[in-house]
């Protein structure tokens, strides 16, 4: 059953629901701008006229508050901003723009003042400052201003003006040029229609795409679902400058889906134009053996986790097959599930002269391997999310799902979107359960919510009633009555619903709005009906989960007790596409960690391919905030070495799972708050 439906807009200007996916990808890759603008029409073509003092809003920050020339004032303002006094800094930035309007410091002051205004939701004033610095053309601040102004127009649903600004920016010799080009492409992929295609092609320069533009187009296309790439290709005229790279990307996606015949057809078409001739030939012919790049892989291939290790090895081998144009070879070592064996594995791989290591998975092994790899100065991508691993040394990356981020997302959603204030937590008595409970509780309290109660259950128990009762404020007589009326003494199951007559006279035993359940799907299947037995049920209490819920076993026997439950996960259509291709290749389903292993090998392949196409060397590219095509959606690495994947929110209903609409609040919630400019809801 599809989670989303495809809809081609009838006109170009309106901003349909499907565009909402854009903000997550854009904000994760650039960290610029989110949520909360009005949709009032704009008139960007009119020349900007600076406001007089009488015209300035009373809300404009500050009158002149400091002494000195423009450079002195700029230093003062920047220092105040670093110290967190943003209001005072904004006042000085405004002072510079008024007192020294043509000084070298004015462009930077305009942009930083605009960023402050955007955070306050004062878009008109911010737009004026951005237009002023763009008109002056002072780099690098004009480039930064163009990025922000394009985002502002895009958020106001004025796609044509946003595209015009990003297209002009892409032609400039500035670091932001390629970012503007990527913004334009990502927006177009989600807004693709005959009308928008005609406008885009008319907006582009008549000159052929540059090498960097071609690389970016290919990379953006490679991150799209296969069906979307096919749609965009169908909209291109034969003379479209986008067509060659789109054909290359379509061939690659076909190969990843296991369809080599279709892949070779598209690659052959790509050999007919100079822009993609060489890359197409790389795919059509075997690479030279002497060029092979050695990737070390440390997995638990023995001991009680050896079945998992074999599954992860299959994922790495699938990545090799999907990127066969890139000369990679795997050197595999066994972690054995222990720190000592993992350390020895790193030593063995260093002797084999591997250039990067992927793995291990388990915490102790991953930590020990990271320390050893850092000592040898070998970059390593561990598959474990624990915080202390990244402190092992330089070039330690964590290619892992961040469970703590999921807990924080659920807290934000419940408080910011649903306006819940009181919460309970029921988690497994394990390191994972305590980690998730602590993360959720800390975020709830930071947002002025309350944790009413917390309980940790024995993971081996099939009966969760002792811990559920600990969460409630019970009437003992009512409990006794319910137990006497229950049809059976064994734990309730979703396939065994309670009689309706037993539910009518129940008192509310839960004094909280939502229950956070960071545990496995098979346990949720038992917890939900048992919680309902004690009258913890929807809609009075909303169940909040994690991506661990999203398994088919959750829905076996129906979803009666899970109605309205919410959980976060990565892009499900892409993940399902990967699962089907994996099953076709290995006749087994990939584990959750298999996507991480696949992504690790494929990221190295993408970096080497990008370098071959004129991009930076692979280690430089790995350290940059670039998005890569992952098995379950885009992935990028933060400066800390942690990986970040975009999440969506899903709700359980009678049909199974549906994707929640991407409201402005949810866009903000799903975005890394430390890396973006947030526009508060209700801004201009």
Helix content: 40-55%
Rg on CA atoms, Å: 27 Å
CATH class of the domain at 295-401 and 574-641: Alpha Beta
Instruction: Output the CATH topology of the domain at 295-401 and 574-641.
Output: Rossmann fold
Strand order of the largest sheet: 3-2-4-5-6
Low-pLDDT ranges: 1-11, 13-64, 487-508, 672-677
- The CATH architecture term of the domain at 295-401 and 574-641 is 3-Layer(aba) Sandwich
The CATH superfamily of the domain at 295-401 and 574-641 is: Response regulator
Total of DSSP H or I helical runs spanning 4+ residues: 26
Head-to-tail CA distance between termini: 39 Å
- Give the overall shape, derived from the CA principal axes: globular
Overall pLDDT: 81
β-sheet strand percentage: 5-15%
Oligomer category: single chain
Structural class: alpha/beta
What does the main sheet amount to? 5 strands, parallel
| Tally of strands | 17
Q: What's this entry about, in short?
A:
The protein is built from 26 helices and 17 strands.
Describe what this molecule looks like in 3D:
Among the domains are: 208-286, no CATH class; 295-401 and 574-641, Response regulator (Rossmann fold, 3-Layer(aba) Sandwich), CATH 3.40.50; 404-569, Response regulator (Rossmann fold, 3-Layer(aba) Sandwich), CATH 3.40.50.2300. The chain is built from 26 helices and 17 strands. It has a 5-stranded parallel beta sheet, with helices on both faces. Strand 4, helix 17 and strand 5 form a beta-alpha-beta unit. The model is unreliable at 1-11, 13-64, 487-508 and 672-677 (pLDDT under 50).
């Amino acid at each position: 059953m599809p989670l989303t439906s495809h809809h081609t807009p009838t006109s170009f200007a309106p901003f349909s629901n499907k565009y909402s996916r854009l903000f997550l990808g854009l904000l994760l890759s650039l960290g610029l701008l989110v949520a909360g603008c009005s949709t009032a029409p704009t008139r960007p073509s009119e020349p900007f006229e600076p406001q007089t003092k009488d015209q300035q809003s009373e809300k404009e920050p500050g009158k002149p508050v400091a002494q000195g020339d423009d450079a002195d004032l700029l230093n003062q303002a920047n220092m105040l901003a670093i110290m967190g006094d943003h209001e005072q800094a904004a006042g000085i930035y405004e002072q510079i723009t008024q007192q020294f309007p043509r000084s070298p410091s004015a462009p930077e002051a305009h942009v930083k003042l605009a960023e402050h205004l955007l955070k306050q939701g004062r878009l008109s004033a911010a737009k004026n400052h951005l237009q002023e610095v763009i008109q002056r053309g002072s780099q690098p601040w004009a480039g930064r201003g163009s990025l922000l102004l394009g985002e502002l127009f895009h958020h106001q649903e004025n796609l044509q003006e946003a595209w015009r600004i990003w297209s002009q920016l892409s032609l400039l010799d500035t670091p932001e040029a390629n970012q503007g080009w990527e913004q334009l492409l990502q927006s177009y992929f989600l807004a693709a229609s005959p009308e928008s295609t005609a406008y885009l092609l008319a907006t582009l320069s008549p000159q052929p795409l540059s090498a960097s533009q071609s690389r970016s187009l290919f990379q953006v296309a490679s991150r799209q679902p296969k069906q979307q790439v096919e749609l965009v290709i169908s909209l291109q005229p034969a003379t479209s400058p986008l067509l060659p790279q789109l054909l290359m990307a379509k061939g690659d996606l076909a190969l990843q889906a296991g369809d080599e015949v279709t892949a070779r057809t598209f690659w052959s078409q790509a050999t007919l134009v100079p822009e993609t001739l060489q890359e197409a030939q790389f795919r059509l012919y075997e690479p030279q053996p002497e060029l092979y790049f050695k990737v070390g892989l440390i997995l638990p291939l023995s001991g009680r986790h050896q079945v998992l290790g074999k599954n992860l090895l299959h994922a790495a081998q699938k990545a090799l097959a999907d990127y066969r144009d890139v000369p990679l070879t795997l050197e595999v070592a066994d972690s054995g599930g222990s720190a000592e064996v993992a350390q020895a594995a790193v030593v063995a791989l260093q002797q084999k002269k591997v250039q990067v290591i992927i793995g291990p998975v388990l915490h102790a092994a991953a930590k020990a391997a990271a320390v050893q790899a850092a000592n040898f100065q070998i970059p390593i991508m561990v598959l474990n999310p624990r915080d202390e691993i990244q402190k092992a040394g330089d070039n330690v990356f964590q290619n892992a799902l961040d469970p703590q981020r999921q807990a924080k997302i659920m807290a934000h959603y419940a408080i910011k979107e649903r306006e819940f204030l009181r919460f309970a937590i029921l988690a497994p008595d394990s390191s994972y359960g305590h980690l998730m409970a602590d993360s959720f509780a800390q975020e709830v309290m930071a947002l002025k919510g309350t944790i009413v109660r917390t309980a940790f259950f024995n993971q081996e128990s099939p009966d969760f009633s002792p811990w559920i009762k600990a969460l409630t404020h019970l009437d003992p007589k009512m409990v006794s009555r319910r137990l006497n009326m229950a049809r059976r003494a064994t734990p309730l199951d979703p396939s065994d619903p309670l009689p309706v007559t037993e539910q009518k006279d129940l008192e509310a035993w839960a004094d909280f709005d939502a229950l956070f359940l960071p545990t496995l799907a098979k346990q949720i299947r038992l917890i939900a009906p048992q919680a309902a037995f004690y009258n913890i049920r929807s809609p009075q209490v909303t169940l909040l989960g994690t991506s661990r819920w999203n398994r088919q076993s959750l829905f076996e026997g129906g979803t009666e007790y899970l109605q309205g439950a919410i959980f976060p996960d990565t892009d499900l259509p892409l993940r399902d596409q990967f699962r089907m291709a994996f099953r076709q290749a290995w006749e087994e389903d990939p584990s959750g960690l298999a996507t991480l292993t696949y992504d690790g090998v494929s990221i190295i392949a993408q970096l080497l391919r990008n370098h071959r196409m004129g991009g930076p060397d692979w280690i430089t590219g790995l350290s940059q905030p670039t998005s890569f095509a992952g098995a379950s959606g885009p992935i990028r690495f933060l400066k800390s070495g942690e990986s970040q994947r975009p999440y969506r929110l899903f709700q359980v209903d009678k049909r199974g799972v549906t994707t929640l609409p991407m409201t402005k609040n949810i866009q903000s919630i799903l975005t890394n708050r430390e890396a973006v400019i947030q526009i508060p809801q209700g801004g201009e």
